[in-house]
Amino acid sequence: MKVSFLILVILIATFLASPLQAHIIYKWVDKDGAVNYTDDYSKIPPAYRDRVDIVYVHEEGPPIPSQPPPEKREEIKTDIYGQNETYWRGKVHPWKERLKDAEANYEKAHEKLMQKTMELSRRRFGSPTQYKMNIIELDRFKEEMIKYQAQIAEVHEMLGKLFKEAEASKANPDWLK
């Protein structure tokens, strides 16, 4: 009886002297359905990091410093060609600036045309030379407006092409705003 008690004490002492350690193993299933394992979180492809299962493997051995799984970093989202939001905003921004300028210039030309028209409607009379000069000035304002309308149409056409290009590359539509 003393021998079995002594063996039990030795077994308990041995068990306590060699603590069990848990190793962290990361498990994920790829697009082909293959199950993958690794003990290094950085070796997990970024596309699968949100689907990782953590498996704790218990084994005897010296203590290993425990490391919590790395924090999930915000992945930079890209389209199917690897272009990100900065790329798309950079392509759209100059066209939006051109649109803003063309619209402002159109409004100025329209305002000038309206002022000249009002001025002529108040005067109604004048020499044939003054009349011809006023007509020439009105025509100039109309030509200006037509030029800015063409610029606005060009910008809208280009932005439409960019939106179609972004759609084809599966870019986030918010990136173009």
Shape: rod-shaped
Structural class from helices and strands?
alpha+beta
CA-CA gap between termini? 84 Å
Mean pLDDT: 78
Point out poorly predicted stretches: none
How many beta-strand segments?
Answer: 3
What is the element string, with H for helices and E for strands?
HEEEHH
Rg is 37 Å
Main sheet: strand order: 2-1-3
Taken as a percent bin, the fraction of beta residues is 5-15%
- Continuous helix count: 3
Number of structural units classed as domains: 2
Largest sheet: 3 strands, antiparallel
Overview of the structural elements:
It is a single chain. This protein is an alpha+beta fold and 177 residues long. It has two domains: 57 residues, no CATH class; 92 residues. It contains three helices and three strands. Helix 2 packs antiparallel against helix 3. The longest helix has 41 residues. The mean pLDDT is 78.
